[in-house]
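ASSEMBLY PREDICTION REQUEST
Request ID: AP-0331
Submitted by: J.K., bench scientist
Number of chains: two
Total residues: 621
Priority: normal
Notes: Please return the full assembly, not individual chains.
Input sequences:
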Amino acid sequence: MSDLTRFTAAELAEHLAAGDVSSVEATRAHLDRIAEVEPDVHAFLHVSGEAALRRAAELDRLRAAGEAPSPLAGVPVAIKDVLCTSDMPSTAGSRILEGWVPPYDATPVARLRAAGLVPLGKTNMDEFAMGSSTEYSAYGATHNPWDLTRIPGGSGGGSAAAVAAYESPVALGSDTGGSIRQPAAVTGTVGVKPTYGGVSRYGSIALASSLDQVGPVSRTVLDAALIHDVIGGHDPHDATSLTDTWPSMAEAARRGRTEGSLAGIRVGVVHELNGSGFQAGVRQRFGEALQRMAEAGAEIVEVAAPHFEYAISAYYLILPAEASSNLAKYDAIRFGLRVDPGRSTTEQVMALSREQGFGPEVKRRVILGTYALSAGYYDAYYGSAQQVRTLVQRDFTAAFEQADVLVSPSAPTTAFPLGEKVDDPLAMYLNDVTTIPANLAGVPGMSLPIGLAPEDGLPVGLQLMAPAREDARLYRVGATVEALLEAEWGAPLLSRAPKLGRPVPAPGFGTEPDGGTL
Amino acid sequence: MPDASPVITVADVQHLAGLARIALEPAEIEHLAGELNVIVDSVKKVQEVATPDVPATSHPIPLVNVLRPDVVGEVLTQEQVLSGAPDAFDGRFRVPAILGEEQ
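STATUS: Completed
Returned structure:
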């Protein structure tokens, strides 16, 4: 039997349907792989071994009875720890929620379960999704499977590393300013931020409510589309969830792969994100990807988005403002950590619990947000940021009059070394320059691998963006680009990642704050 | 060039931390004041283009309020709601004293 962890979710689904692989076998193979590589990668905060095998056995029985709930029934999946799971702790990477088991499932999780996917565990992330490297996780950083001394991106570095290291074929992520797309870029995987409201956020632990969106993490465009189809669509539990009827993303991806989609399509290179000032190898691979797209019939046009340069500033006012409000719920009363030295008031207990339960980045952003919202500064900061949001939206509207999809490198650099930016918040924030505009405007974005930077041999990602509600266009175009590049490489990019689970030199460099936990 | 933005002082951070209900050590407050000044100095860039003629956007996709009939929906049981509480008694959340001795 070939290594079951190398199959994509789509391939596994075919084998499960053909009956030559069982869900128990597939699940066990991934749990074995987790045991093998987790000491190095640390993608998971919780592994649900027994429960996963029990559920897999149940799905094998259902399939044998002809009652498989969906084509993906029996396929393993990893879940970012920002999503509530009724049978696993859900901490959002924070000490303040250590050990908390929510009384309900987030809607995307409930939909995966209903479709018969098998949750393997919860993946690591920056605390409350605040970060671009997973180094702000209260439970230790995740390591990039391509180079264990480097960041896996963030906040969803755990989900990206888990699929890159073949610990799971697919995973769920959340993207507030790039937390799905940037980890995908630096780990050589695929990640999609759907249109704002396209996927329910019920049970997704809130960071910034006008920006957050849940989406798929995978190794192929088709796998992301398959997961998108399962988790997407209206949910009455989420008042911001769109009531649209969506086309099949998987159908779009399949057509994009087999028929091609680039002939006559206008691909807009965003002038402000065209790579100037970015790492040389990122610029080079981005230019080559454009060349391939042009050869396949795309018309490459340059579009201007003059206000994108203000997007990052607007984001780092809007996000802290909304986060300071959302995180007020951690009051040491209803759930989570309570630090009570005795003879203290509820207010003192709350302040002490938040001091101990929140890490430095969370404190920084909550206090920044409190400042931005305070009387006398509201108009100058939060108000101005919301005006910039209008300008960014107008830039997108104008750009999409000239182009069907917009493109940029997914991130300015390849994976940087763990520890490099952890004490320099502003440098960490600048890392999100490419991904933030899509969140401010609510448009969908995808990152897919386009090669390795020659200078460091690390993955580079291409970001595709489409108008709001045109998520299917991303899958159609993304699947074509993926097919073109794989034909050129002769194999998926991840086949060039170094082997894991062998004796590897210790990560070292003192970069893991508390040694990490499995 | 003179810096037009108000400088965030240690006292400001102390005040903000109080509003945000986060206890902080003096050293932490001092460190944060420095960091916040650097961040605010950078993000105030938004003011350059936020002219009065530009309307504000609070939400990326226009939405309308959502209503439903006033009937009991899918809700959590009392036991579920209390399941994660640090302290509960007799079907309710139990909290430390609301008022201090001075109040």
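REVIEWER COMMENTS: The first strand of chain B starts at residue 88 and ends at 89.
SIGN-OFF: pending second reviewer
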